[in-house]
Design goal:
By secondary structure, this protein is of the alpha/beta class. The chain has a domain of 149 residues: Rossmann fold. It is 36% helix and 24% strand. The chain has nine helices and ten strands. Strands 6-7-8-3-9-10 form a six-stranded mixed beta sheet, with helices on both faces. Strand 9 and strand 10 form a beta hairpin. Helix 4 packs across helix 5. It is globular.
Length: 257
């Protein structure tokens, strides 16, 4: 994977800095280019700026200085209404799935379509939602159940189906396996890979604390440390790195898959 031009990248961060109080900087000059079509994992210890960087990519935060360019568009060039529409290019699977408790599985997946594709008929909305639920492998027997009536794994599948509803160009997974048991963790990891392979050209970005999964399933890895990118490259680049902190991660038991 060797992109050569700006158009080959889904997300570009240019010297992005962020402070909330004018004194302490959370992001200290992030330089990053995420290749289009990649399955990218963002890793790093807690407090290194992963979540803050992710919010900049989504346009939820504005940098104190620097540029955030997504799909060849500088987010700073858009007003709030334009940015809201632009976010339809993203699908997000949240850490807890973040489903609406009082909506059924099917209604949860219909929701973004009803909000952002109002030209669609109710029948078309339902048809698309059913297609997405089928894509993530959720049995139709669960479509009319509430989130509290299905398992954690099914909730993740429903959340992913909802994230896919608008056919986004970029899929973001925010700590998708936090708090899950090993079996469910493996299921979610495999689901991410299967979804990525089933949608050629889609860029998948996964923020994860699970180093084993990050190196097993990602083809591009970004490691943050103290508000900066310590290393970005293929898993092989990490295995071959002489950087001390990278070596500590690798030596913790990450094995070449």
């Amino acid at each position: 994977m060797t992109p050569k031009s700006q158009g080959d990248y889904a997300v570009v961060l240019q010297d992005v800095k962020k402070t909330f109080d004018g004194k302490e900087f959370i992001l200290k000059g992030i330089e990053l280019k995420i290749p289009k079509g990649s399955l990218t994992a963002i890793i790093g210890f807690s407090g290194t700026g992963k979540s803050v960087m992710l919010k900049h990519m989504l346009g939820l935060l504005k940098p104190t200085s620097g540029k955030v360019i997504v799909l060849d568009t500088d987010l700073a060039s858009m007003d709030d209404n334009t940015l809201t529409k632009f976010r339809c290019n993203f699908g997000v699977l949240f850490q807890s799935a973040a489903l609406f408790d009082d909506m059924s599985v099917l209604e949860n997946v219909c929701f973004p379509l009803e909000e952002h594709r109002r030209e669609l008929s109710p029948e078309d909305v339902k048809k698309i939602a059913l297609e997405k639920l089928k894509m993530v492998g959720l049995d139709t027997a669960h479509n009319n159940k509430l989130p509290s009536q299905i398992s954690g794994g099914m909730q993740k599948r429903t959340g992913l189906a909802r994230a896919l509803a608008l056919d986004p160009e970029i899929l973001i997974y925010d700590e998708p396996t936090t708090g899950l048991d090993p079996i469910l963790t493996e299921m979610v990891d495999n689901l991410i890979v299967e979804t990525h392979k089933a949608r050629p050209g889609t860029t998948s970005i996964m923020v994860s604390h699970d180093l084993h999964a990050a190196f097993r399933i990602a083809d591009f890895v970004v490691m943050l440390d103290a508000g900066k990118v310590l290393l970005a490259g293929t898993p092989d680049d990490f295995y071959k790195s002489d950087l001390e902190l990278v070596r500590r991660f690798v030596d913790k038991g990450i094995k070449h898959q």
